[in-house]
Amino acid sequence: MFGGFTTSFKIFDFDLSAQFNYSIGGRKWDSGYQSLMTPPYGQIVGRSYHRDIYNAWTPENPDSNIPRWQYDDMTFANASDRWLIDGSYLSLRNITLGYTFPRSMTSKLKMQSLRIYASCENLYYWTKRKGFDPRMSLVTGSYGDNYSPMRNISGGISVQF
């Protein structure tokens, strides 16, 4: 299930509005985690690894749900449901704060209204795993060919004569 909601309110001459979107349920493939859990093989050594490799199965740690992690194990990172993660998220897509000058001030300047505002887009998102952005694709998550939406901060002046 996915959707969005919005809210806005005005106090005195200030106005604030916010837009959110969300997804509840579903699973997403975390290819970034899969890549960081892949053991070294052949000439592919000296790369970054996820700290979960320290919790992999060993004779001293037989109750681990992470298989044995060892050099040149080409099957460890094969496709499996191990790389699926909850795809739920809540995203703050837009927040706008504005101030409308009182009519007593704007009428002296021969204006009907004058408003200044600041707007922020793609400000923040909450998800189960830090660094995992399930908004980007139905298939991949934290890495791949996708970038998270750009965070934009802008402002403006609205004048009506």
What does this structure look like?
- The chain is mainly β and about 160 residues long.
- It contains 2 helices and 7 strands, in the order βββαββαββ.
- Helices cover about 10% and strands about 40% of the residues.
- The protein has a 5-stranded antiparallel sheet.
- It is elongated, with a radius of gyration of 24 Å.
- It starts with a strand and ends with a strand.
- The mean pLDDT is about 85.
Name the descriptors.
single chain; about 160 residues; mainly beta; two-stranded antiparallel sheet; 2 helices; about 40% strand
Could you give a short description of this structure?
This protein has helices spanning 31-37, 103-108; strands at residues 2-11, 14-23, 27-29, 84-86, 89-100, 113-127, 152-160.
Mean pLDDT value: 86
Count of runs of 4 or more consecutive helical residues: 2
Order of helices and strands: EEEHEEHEE
Biggest sheet record: 5 strands, antiparallel
- What order do the strands of the largest sheet run in, or round the barrel if closed? 1-2-5-6-7
Radius of gyration: 24 Å
Helix residue percentage: under 10%
Number of strands: 7
Strand content: 35-45%
Low-confidence spans? none
Distance between the termini: 45 Å
Based on secondary structure, the structural category is mainly beta
User: What's the overall geometry?
Assistant: elongated
Please render the helix and strand layout as text.
Layout: E1 2-11, E2 14-23, E3 27-29, H1 31-37, E4 84-86, E5 89-100, H2 103-108, E6 113-127, E7 152-160
Antiparallel strand pairs: 1-2, 2-5, 3-4, 5-6, 6-7
